[in-house]
From TrEMBL:
It comes from the Bacteria. Belongs to the ABC transporter superfamily. Residues 495-524 are annotated as: Disordered. Residues 6-216, 283-503 form the ABC transporter domain. GO terms for molecular function: ATP binding. Residues 512-524 have a biased composition (Basic and acidic residues). This is ABC-F family ATP-binding cassette domain-containing protein. It holds the Pfam family ABC_tran_CTD.
């Protein structure tokens, strides 16, 4: 076995209170591909910085091969003092390194090298930082969240590049599919200590659950043993004093172990506040277009989203995912075509930029909008501190300013606010950013089991596969195509091709692909709608509009707080009438939808 390039042993570090690192180990040998995993705030980034010689531990041993080169990718790269991206990237090269390697990486990462660092977006800055640390082909490559702000095409290319590298790799990432593809070993940092599995991340979750179950059993056995020893000391037959003193010492030691045991971290409780059921048709888009100058972002796109659908939007950065999302939700008007929103929609939105909260605002004030100390969640009043605990916040953090939160805590706070609002349509733009594995799993369960409708933008392929019922992806020249199933299903329907080929990554547009038919074309002669069907199709929209207006009028009536006191019987009749109108609307919408689909099938 080759000697290790890096060996951290018994690392300890405390920033007051509970130790952050309490005897952590980390070993990397040539060719290792290690996934470093753990909860947000567990110390993963700190341990990686110790490995990079950026932080000095309070105790423990740090060994690095004297001749080994180390490169570290921070979460936020510092480009101050560099006139161009090329200057920044080439500053990471050593005297014997090949400068053509830097050009190769920038080219494949979509950078010319002439960009000014101050003008870069978050994704471009991340790609420049990746080129800088990968260009020297170091002996040890330390990557902290390398996939943040990257689109799927670049993530897939990065996976292939890291699989080929001879560097020993230690990587922190919340992208489960990425970790599965690049890792061959997993180090779990939990409660200040590390455990190592000599298998890739694909085996981590099963192993973690086994470890925690075994730990719980051992703690239970220790508690039973303490009870037996206490009973013996009180009621057992008197033995030699020396023997009694020994057993008393052992009992005290067991008590200390039992009391000092740090249980596993709690898990967040994610529950969305329910709103009244929306109509069966949630969103209908017909031949919508959107351009910005000469750039066509969306061209001739049509879709119908019905209640209960979970739709994922994927594509490279700049393809227009957020623009399409805003058009579908009515926030942005199309240049051509039409978007129709269903009735009774209650929309809750998680913004990608995570800028909704003021840095000086406290957590409690942000969650309640400054309206007292309570929230109404699913019709029940809850104190804000109790609700915060569901999202792993401590009671004392209620008065903490938002600026003091980590990226993961800020993501949980925004989720808490969004899920507190009654909604039957969740719009989530990059919801998985900065979430730890456990919170990600709970968000996944929430989305998959949500009774309403979900539209989400994500680069997390594993999350998409586990949650969505269809995927909308770009197909070149502003065209977008909807595929049934998750991300892997989309790839299968595209013939196994990824979102962009190498030519497209270098700045050339991808060739448009023909949309795959959802069903085999009928070999029967083309039929036409009957006179009765045509009449219904023409008149159903008028009926739907009339029922929609009636529903709005009834809802306005029952919104009057004095209505019930003034006329209890009339109030109950209005409620019954409203229920009937909503039921009639669902029937009319379903009938219109079936006829419209039949018309398109016959005309297509």
């Amino acid at each position: 076995m080759a000697p290790p390039l890096l060996n951290l042993t018994g690392i300890k570090l405390t920033f007051g209170g509970t130790p952050l690192l309490d005897g952590a180990d980390l070993v990397a040998a040539p060719g290792d591909k290690i996934a470093l995993v753990g909860r947000n705030g567990s110390g993963k980034s700190t341990l990686l910085k110790i490995a990079a010689d950026m932080i000095e531990p309070q105790d423990g041993e740090v060994f690095r091969q004297p001749t080994a080169t180390v490169r570290y990718l921070p979460q936020v790269p510092d480009m101050d003092g560099f006139a161009s991206v090329r200057a920044y990237v080439e500053a990471g090269l050593g005297p014997a390194d090949d400068p053509h390697r830097a050009t190769y990486l920038m080219d494949h990462l979509g950078l010319t090298g002439e960009e000014r660092p101050s003008d870069l977006s978050g994704g471009e800055a991340r790609r420049a930082a990746l080129a800088r640390v990968m260009a020297p082909e170091p002996d040890i490559l330390l990557l902290d969240e390398p996939t943040n702000h990257l689109d799927l095409a670049v993530i897939e290319w990065l996976e292939e590049e890291l699989a080929r590298t001879s560097s020993a790799l230690i990587v922190i990432s919340h992208d489960r599919r990425f970790l599965q593809r690049v890792s061959r070993a997993t180090v779990w940092l939990d409660r200040g200590q590390t455990r190592r599995l000599e298998k890739g991340f694909a085996h981590f979750e099963e192993w973690r659950d086994q470890v925690l179950e075994e730990e719980e059993r051992e703690q239970h056995k220790l508690g039973r043993q303490i009870v037996r020893e206490e009973h013996w000391l009180r009621y057992g037959v008197t033995a030699r004093r020396k023997r009694n003193m020994r057993r008393l010492g052992e009992l005290q030691s067991m008590r200390q172990r039992f009391r000092s045991h740090r249980g596993a971290e709690g898990t967040a409780t994610l529950v969305a506040s329910d709103a009244a059921e929306s109509g069966k048709l949630v969103i209908e888009a017909k031949n919508i277009d959107k351009s910005f100058g000469e750039l066509t972002v969306v061209k001739g796109f049509s879709t119908r989203i019905q209640r209960g659908d979970r739709v994922g939007l994927v594509g490279p950065n700049g393809a227009g995912k957020t623009t399409l999302l805003k058009m579908l939700t009515g926030e942005l008007a199309p240049d051509a075509g039409s978007v129709r929103l269903g009735v009774n929609l209650e929309i809750a939105t998680l913004d990608q930029k995570r800028e909704a909260a003021s840095p000086e605002e406290t957590l409690a004030h942000y969650l309640t909008d400054g309206r007292g100390e309570n929230l109404v969640i699913n019709g029940e009043q809850r104190h804000v501190v109790s609700y915060m605990k569901d999202f792993l916040f401590k009671p004392e953090q209620a008065r903490t300013p938002v600026r003091e939160l980590s990226g993961g805590e800020r993501a949980r706070l925004l989720l808490a606010r969004v899920l507190a609002r009654p909604a039957n349509l969740l719009v989530l733009d990059e919801p998985t950013n900065d979430l730890d594995m456990e919170t990600l799993e709970l968000l996944q369960e929430l989305v998959a089991g949500f009774a309403g409708t979900v539209i989400l933008v994500s680069h997390d392929r594993d999350f998409l596969d586990r949650t969505v019922t269809s995927v909308i992806a770009p197909d070149g020249a502003g065209r977008w195509v909807e595929y049934a199933g998750g991300y892997s299903d989309m790839l299968a329907q595209r013939g196994g091709t990824k979102l962009e080929d190498r030519k497209a990554r270098n700045g050339q547009a991808a060739e448009p692909k023909a949309e795959k038919p959802r069903a085999e074309a009928s070999k029967e002669p083309a039929r036409k709608l009957s006179f009765k069907q045509k009449f219904a199709l023409e008149n159903l929209p008028k009926k739907i509009d009339a029922v929609t207006a009636s529903i709005a009028r009834l809802e306005n009536n029952i919104a009057d707080p004095a209505f019930y006191e003034r006329d209890p019987v009339g109030f109950q009749k209005t409620i019954a009438a409203l229920d009937k109108e909503r039921s009639d609307l669902a029937v009319l919408e379903e009938e219109w939808l079936e006829l419209e689909m039949l018309r398109e099938e016959l005309e297509g």
